[in-house]
């Protein structure tokens, strides 16, 4: 029995270069799903490109932190933004303010609803929900995101995990278990394992060579998700994002035929979020992964 493997590329819509790289990694590599960032400056220009890639499963990458402005105004979400209408710069800032009860959950709910509406207006249907910087791990924020996914009829959610040592990975594991239980209590589904946080932005060929044998280890038969961040080597639009990610190293690894061979040889089958978590879990849906008519099987993506 083969083990289902989702390879999900985050940040579609961040820049044109990132969006093109994700599509390339789907067409010529192993990416089966993507999480769309509607706050990304290139979202409006690139959302339509997804219509030509109906087997690429599309999720909603909700953003409550980061460099880009929210969809709603300061008047509409006053506790979520600063005086200039900007979101918190990082998860640490947001979580600290939320824990101190300085952020109204209603403001969070209004902004995520606006992002979902923008996603739907672009003609997209969400196969899953996750968040920028994994902020839905945190108590209180998790309930807002999970409740929203229920209201929207989204079947699945990412449950982040970490493998490293130290207090932060340990906290991620603990919060992830809590999030998984809360998702299941609401009837939401999720991969049994998530990998990619420890190597976030640096899943190059060497990292994948270490990762694939661990994914194939006989420690369970559930679906595994790997989160990745491909991008173009020369991308001037990416200059404002000083994350230190190796975007070109990731796209090179994802489109290398050797990676596809190693996944096949390890006994894993590439599936999308829509394949794994459509009603019944069979992937036999009445529409394609991003709302377009079905064609073929996403297990064959990547050429």
Sum up the structure in keywords.
seven-stranded parallel β-sheet; single chain; 303 residues; 10 helices; TIM Barrel; disordered C terminus; alpha/beta
Detailed description of the structure:
There is one protein chain. The protein is of the alpha/beta class and 303 residues long. It has one domain: TIM Barrel (Alpha-Beta Barrel), CATH 3.20.20.370. It is built from 10 helices and 7 strands. Strands 1, 2, 3, 4, 5, 6 and 7 form a 7-stranded parallel beta sheet that branches. The longest helix has 19 residues. The C terminus is likely disordered.
Query: How does CATH name the architecture?
Result: Alpha-Beta Barrel
Distance separating the two termini? 23 Å
Query: Treating each run of at least 4 consecutive H or I residues as one helix, how many helices?
Result: 10
Structural category: alpha/beta
Q: What coarse outline follows from CA principal-axis ratios? A: globular
> How are helices and strands ordered from N to C?
EHEHEHHEHHEHEHHEH
Estimate the helix proportion, in percent. Answer: 25-40%
């Amino acid at each position: 029995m083969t083990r289902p493997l989702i390879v999900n590329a985050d940040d579609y819509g961040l820049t044109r270069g990132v969006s093109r790289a994700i599509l390339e990694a789907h067409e010529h590599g192993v990416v089966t799903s993507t999480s769309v960032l509607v706050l990304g400056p290139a979202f409006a220009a690139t959302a339509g490109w997804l219509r030509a890639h109906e087997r690429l499963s599309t999720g909603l990458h909700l953003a409550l932190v980061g460099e880009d402005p929210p969809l709603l105004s300061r008047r509409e979400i006053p506790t979520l933004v600063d005086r200039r209408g900007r979101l918190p710069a990082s998860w640490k800032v947001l979580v600290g303010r939320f824990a101190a009860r300085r952020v109204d959950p209603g403001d969070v709910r209004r902004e995520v609803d606006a992002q979902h509406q923008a996603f739907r207006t672009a003609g997209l249907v969400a196969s899953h929900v996750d968040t920028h910087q994994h902020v839905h791990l945190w108590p209180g924020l998790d309930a807002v995101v999970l409740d929203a996914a229920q209201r929207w009829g989204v079947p699945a959610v990412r449950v982040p995990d970490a493998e490293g040592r130290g207090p932060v990975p340990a906290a991620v594991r603990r919060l992830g278990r809590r999030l998984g239980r809360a998702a299941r209590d609401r009837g939401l589904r999720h991969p049994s394992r998530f990998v990619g946080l420890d190597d976030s932005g640096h899943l190059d060929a060497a990292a994948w060579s270490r990762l694939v044998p661990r994914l194939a280890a006989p420690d369970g038969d559930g679906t595994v998700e790997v989160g990745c961040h491909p991008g173009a080597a020369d991308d001037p639009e990416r200059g404002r994002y000083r994350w230190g990610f190796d975007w070109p190293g990731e796209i090179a690894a994802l489109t290398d035929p050797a990676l596809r061979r190693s996944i096949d040889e390890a006994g894993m089958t590439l599936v999308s979020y829509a394949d794994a978590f459509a009603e019944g879990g069979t992937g036999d849906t009445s529409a394609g992964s991003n709302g377009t008519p079905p064609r073929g099987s996403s297990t064959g993506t990547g050429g």
